[in-house]
User: Which sequence fits this backbone?
């Protein structure tokens, strides 16, 4: 059973203390049926105008799928990969009425940092499990290598029919799941979110929340024992929720650790 705390404790931090995030940014979160909808792939510091277009190359793409009330459809044919100075994007055709999740997964990339930089990185993005593992085994003086990948979801509302399929996990390795349809939330209502790691609630994860084009204020939450946080809904504001988690990778000779960056973007009515 999923439970939620009555209140969530949040810290407000300056932009410089925030993790480098990745997200999907649709041109419109409430498109019309049959509309051609542009989806941009963004990476950067949340809450400020420092987002860059992510290099969208075919070898980076593991999947792009649309989860709707009537099932799942593959959207890889909608992808326009980065070419020269042109930013990569997706141009998808909006289906019938309902609430949808467009979900992206990347293939892993490799990183190797010397000890001091890797320790700072772990602290910066909230990778507490890896930090604790290194501390317990006396590895803080050694370099750290990781395979890192990205998971991103954005929620779309087509027409007036709001559906609850967006509250169901879709099976991403690291995933932010709303307990209520975000489009049903009014200004000031509490939006419960659950963070799942490999399908199970993740306690002690750092979740950041900010307006995509806001003042730069970032609120930082820590998930409770049920993997949950409760965040005030922001009516009319495009919101980004992001989280990072990783663990040792003892069965993979390519790297010491496996890390996932996950995000959820939504613009409530």
Assistant:
């Amino acid at each position: 059973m999923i439970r939620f705390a009555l209140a969530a404790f949040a810290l407000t931090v300056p932009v410089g203390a925030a993790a480098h995030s990745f997200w999907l940014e649709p041109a419109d979160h409430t498109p019309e049926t049959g509309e051609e909808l542009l989806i941009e792939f963004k990476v950067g510091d949340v809450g400020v105008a420092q987002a860059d277009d992510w290099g969208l190359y075919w070898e980076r793409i593991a999947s792009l799928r649309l989860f709707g009330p009537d099932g799942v459809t593959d959207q890889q044919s909608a992808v326009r990969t980065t070419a020269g100075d042109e930013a990569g994007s997706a141009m998808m055709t909006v289906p019938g009425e309902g609430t949808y999740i467009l979900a992206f997964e990347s293939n892993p990339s490799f990183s190797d940092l010397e000890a001091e930089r890797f320790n700072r990185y772990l602290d910066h993005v909230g990778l507490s499990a890896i930090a604790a593992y290194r501390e317990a085994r006396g590895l803080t003086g050694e370099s750290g290598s990781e395979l890192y990948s990205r998971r991103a979801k954005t929620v779309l509302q087509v027409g007036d029919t709001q559906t609850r399929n967006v509250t169901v996990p879709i099976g991403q390795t690291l995933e932010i799941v709303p307990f209520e349809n975000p489009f049903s939330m009014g200004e000031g209502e509490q939006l419960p979110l659950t963070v799942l790691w490999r399908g199970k609630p993740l306690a002690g994860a750092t979740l950041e929340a900010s307006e995509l084009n806001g003042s730069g204020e970032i609120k930082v939450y820590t998930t409770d024992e049920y993997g949950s946080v409760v965040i005030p809904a922001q009516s009319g504001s495009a919101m980004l929720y992001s989280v990072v988690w990783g663990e040792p990778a003892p069965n993979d000779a390519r790297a010491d650790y496996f890390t996932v960056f996950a995000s959820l973007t939504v613009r409530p009515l």
Remarks:
- The chain is about 5% helix and 45% strand.
